[in-house]
Amino acid sequence: MDAARTVVRADAPVAGKVGVITGGGSGHKPSFIGFIGQGMLDAVAVGEIFTSPPPLACFEAAKAADGGKGVLLLLGNYAGDVMNFQLAADMAKAAGIPVEQVISTDDVGSGPKEEAHKRRGVVGAFFGWKVAGAKAAAGGSLEECKAAVEKVNANTRTLGVAISPCTVPAKGSPTFTLAEDEMEYAVGHHGEAGTAKIKTMSADEITAKMTLEVINDLPYKAGDEVAILINGLGGTPQLELYICYRKVKQMLDEREIKVGSSYVGEFFTGLEMAGFSVTLMKLDDELKELLTAPADTPNYKVIA
Question: What is the structure's pLDDT at 157?
Answer without folding.
Answer: 98
